[in-house]
Design goal:
heterodimer, A: mainly alpha, 4 helices, B: alpha+beta, Ubiquitin-like (UB roll), Fumarate Reductase Iron-sulfur Protein, Chain B, domain 2, 2 domains, 5-stranded mixed β-sheet, two-stranded antiparallel sheet, elongated
């Protein structure tokens, strides 16, 4: 439950980073499993690639790319926070990470459809 | 029922186990949350337990959860927190409840000591007083945290404390950072050793609730980031 003390930008950024990390941890084994088809069962991979042409799957991939980008930029933000001299624009950095992630995922979706 | 002249206030009664008790309190033009608690104790139920001392935001005694958010109640105006004529008041989160709104602050202060937030003198009382340069970089870092009033609002707002009872917490670590940067502190290594172990600064997830809710607008997250940098630098320095 979102409690009152959590209603601020950096807590939401923390939640996004944690959820995207969990989602990617679940996604990556499936991703490598599908890639293994290229070596072992190419006909299965072709079937999967045809399935991935569906609009709903492409939209789901948009979500995946967003989560990957959000985790990447969120991680860079945290490394900057912890390793570089402190700056006051931490909320701006978090918002910038989300904006960059949205841009990258949006470009991916535009190219996919 | 809440209306323009009265508000409904739910107050925690009990210790770890208990329930919220409703009270009707008259709305005044100028009224803090602490005023409301004091009114209830004086006029509605004298068995209500709570803690306060200075009433002017200096002593750090009266912090409570107001509508789920930790606040210094003596400096929180009722009109700022009233929602549809209602307000909920509970004891501070992450601390054992003694009774009603009074929490046991021992774990909070024990962690100040555990974080080595104590003075390690460089001189004796027989030496002349050492001059400080207020503009020195380390002094500016040190000075940023010394207005802490030990109210435990940051400690109550911290989810890392909630999930890891060993975590020293924002206030203790900020104190350690102030002591670390003090040019009159003779034992920096003791501070770094204290804050880099189990429950130390590296447990912080940088959620930033401490900085958002600190009533004195201090930034423990900044201090903890500084400790993370210095403990890491110290780790590599000692290995080389």
């Amino acid at each position: 439950m979102r409690r009152g003390y959590r209603n601020h930008t950096l807590w939401v950024a923390y939640l996004l980073h944690r959820l995207s990390g969990v989602a990617l941890a679940l996604f990556l084994p499936v991703h490598f499993w599908v890639l293994s088809y290229a070596l072992n069962q190419p006909e299965h991979l072709d079937g999967f690639l045809r399935w991935s042409e569906m609009g709903i799957v492409k939209f789901a991939e948009f979500g995946l790319v967003f989560l990957l980008a959000a985790h990447l930029f969120g991680g860079l933000r945290l490394m900057a926070l912890e390793w570089l001299p402190w700056t006051s624009g931490q909320k701006t950095a978090a918002a910038g990470a989300v904006a960059a992630s949205t841009l990258i995922a949006g470009v991916f979706l535009m190219r996919a459809i | 029922m809440a209306n323009e002249t009265h508000m409904s206030v739910s107050v925690w009664r009990g210790d770890a186990v208990g329930s919220f008790q409703p009270f009707e309190v008259k709305v005044e033009d100028n009224q803090t949350v602490l005023d409301v608690v004091a009114w209830i104790q004086q006029y509605a139920d004298p068995t209500l337990s709570y803690r306060y001392a200075c009433r002017v935001g200096m002593c750090g005694s009266c912090a409570m959860m107001v509508n789920g958010t930790p606040r210094w109640t003596c400096r929180t105006h009722v009109k700022k927190v009233l929602v549809d004529g209602h307000m909920q008041i509970a004891p501070l989160r992450n601390l054992p409840v003694i009774k009603d709104l009074a929490t046991d602050m021992d774990p909070f202060f024990d962690k100040w000591v555990a974080a080595e937030g104590v003075h390690h003198p460089t001189l004796t009382r027989n030496d002349p007083i050492e001059a400080l340069d207020p503009a020195a970089e380390a002094r500016v870092e040190s000075a940023a945290g010394i207005e802490c009033i030990n109210c435990s609002v940051c400690y109550a707002a911290c989810d890392t404390v909630a999930n890891n009872p060993d975590f020293l917490g924002p206030a203790a670590l900020q104190r350690a950072w102030s002591v670390y940067n003090d040019s009159k502190n003779a034992d920096k290594q003791a501070v770094l050793d204290a804050v880099s172990g189990v429950g130390g600064c590296h447990n912080c997830h940088s959620q930033g609730s401490c900085a958002v809710h600190c009533p004195n607008a201090l930034n423990p997250m900044n201090a903890i980031a500084g400790l993370k940098r210095e403990t890491a630098r110290n780790f590599f320095k000692r290995r080389s």
